[in-house]
Write a structure and sequence with these properties.
Length: about 290
């Protein structure tokens, strides 16, 4: 199995920032120790980003000219390293999506930047990697119909903003009801879960959502955002899934998507455990499910 990453590109963070950048390096070390091949992704060209994002926004990101409001919404200080890392993260998802079409499944040890919309970048997300990867697959005539299954604990507003008008892409987001973002862009199917939702209720809701989405999407390719943040001890999650429940979630999604005949591209999205090793455990279990 080949996985893609961008973890060698770090960027400066203030001491009080909650973005767990170290999880990517720890995860890479974990999976490489298990004998998995991990490749460094190249940065995508700006023209690929412009296929889904507003050019004026991209210019502000490229030059560091984001407004104070945009900087606050992004939640991470701008830096050239941040931009380079963002472009490489998208590159990892593009490569994983290509591999998925060729071999049935592919994975990026990052990505899932679903809060980046056509003309906004927020919630730690500069560029929407899934939207860019889908645009590349279509430009290369590798697929047309797609499904996004977003299991990050936060609603995928940026993905809905970009892909919501697309008649050949179905967007599904399963997330906490009272959580970020507080102004949402509707997906094709949004499933709001009450705080404290545990394994059994979550898996039942996910199964019903897939029952609804799959026949309507009829996907050739599916993007699965395997967020670690529905975990019971995640700082930003508010749900109550166990690690076993999250592993069952991965198996359920992957089994259903592959049974439907879709090529599956897996990305990791969020994870904000008090101890970063717990997030790495959850992400490594997702890698094992893909393997």
């Amino acid at each position: 199995m080949i996985l893609w990453t961008h973890d060698r590109w770090r960027f400066p963070l203030p001491a009080n920032n909650r973005f767990p950048i170290e999880k990517y390096t720890l995860l890479r070390e974990r999976v490489e120790g298990d004998g998995v091949e991990v490749r460094e992704a190249e940065p995508v060209p700006w023209e690929w980003l412009a296929a889904v994002h507003d050019r004026e926004l991209l210019e502000r990101i490229r030059t560091g000219a984001l407004s104070v409001r945009e900087q606050r919404g992004l939640g991470i200080p701008w830096s050239a390293q941040l931009v380079e890392r963002g472009r490489r993260s998208v590159g990892g998802t593009v490569e994983a999506a290509r591999l998925a079409v060729e071999r049935g499944i592919g994975m990026n040890l990052g990505g899932g930047t679903h809060h980046a919309g056509r003309a906004f970048a927020r919630g730690y997300c500069l560029f929407n990697d899934v939207a860019v990867a889908l645009a590349r697959l279509r430009a290369e005539r590798r697929c047309r119909r797609a499904l996004v299954v977003d299991c990050d604990v936060h609603q995928g507003d940026g993905t809905a903003d970009i892909l919501g008008p697309d008649p050949d892409c179905f967007t599904l987001s399963l997330h906490g009801a009272r959580n970020y973002p507080f102004r949402r862009v509707p997906s094709d199917l949004d499933v709001d879960l009450a705080g404290g939702t545990g394994d059994e209720r979550y898996l039942h809701a996910l199964g019903e959502a897939l029952d609804f989405a799959l026949p309507r999407a009829a996907p050739e390719v599916a993007f699965y955002l395997a967020g670690a943040d529905p975990w019971q001890d995640d700082r930003l999650g508010r749900l109550a899934l166990t690690k076993a429940g999250l592993a069952a979630r991965d198996e359920l999604v992957l089994d259903r998507l592959r049974a439907a005949g879709a090529a599956v591209c897996v990305v990791l999205a969020g994870g904000y455990a008090h101890d970063v090793r717990d997030t790495v455990d959850i992400n490594a279990a997702t890698v094992a499910a893909v393997a």
